[in-house]
Design a protein that fits this description.
By secondary structure, this protein is mainly β. About 5% of the residues lie in helices and about 40% in strands. The strands form three sheets. A six-stranded antiparallel β-sheet has the order 1-2-10-7-12-5, with no helix packed on it. Strand 1 and strand 2 form a beta hairpin. The termini are far apart.
Length: about 180
């Protein structure tokens, strides 16, 4: 696995190394030892799948507050997404900044998101599936979000006819 740190401390793009032969390929996309060696939370307690029928579906920007913060390892297993994270760690030099990575079924790329980040994505193709591995279980009373188009963050989303649920459209302006 090739770990490339984003502009955020602790957030990594991970490119699994492929070993190909006439049968196809093999690649390792998870190793607790390799994650721990980089100081990343290697704990995985929950795996979730998000299936999205239409291009332009936007999910996010979601996070959980302490003591139930979640690190996430995200991979697109069908289709393609524009995957976005926002640093919500007040003590961080990159507080309130965002970055995006294109994850596709073809590139096999993953994004490791540490605790303290909001996460969301927009689908770039119909029939897109996203696999999440989480370091902590979902706790509804600790779940929060920031609006996908909050001017505090000014995320540059790809143009699309967006499909967004009401909850994700109506989070209040960020005041943190």
């Amino acid at each position: 696995m090739i770990f490339t740190e984003t502009k955020f401390a602790g957030a990594f793009v991970i490119d699994p190394e492929q070993f190909e032969d006439e049968r196809g390929f093999f690649m390792r996309c998870w190793s607790a030892e390799k994650f721990a060696a980089r100081g990343l939370n290697p704990r995985l307690v929950e795996t979730n799948i998000s299936f999205n029928r239409k291009e332009g579906t936007l999910r996010g920007m979601h996070f959980q507050i302490a003591p139930h913060g979640q690190a996430k390892l995200v991979r697109c297993t069908a289709g393609a997404i524009y995957d976005v994270i926002i640093d919500l760690r007040p003590e961080s030099a990159t507080f309130k900044q965002w970055t995006a990575v294109e994850l596709t079924a073809a590139n096999h790329r993953q994004l490791f998101i540490p605790e303290g980040f909001a996460h969301g994505f927009q689908t770039l193709a119909n029939d897109t599936e996203v696999l999440y591995q989480m370091s902590a279980p979902y706790v509804s009373t600790r779940a929060r979000g920031v609006r996908w188009n909050d001017p505090t963050f000014a995320i540059d989303w790809p143009p699309a006819e967006r499909i967004i649920i009401a909850r994700d459209q109506t989070y209040p302006d960020f005041t943190g």
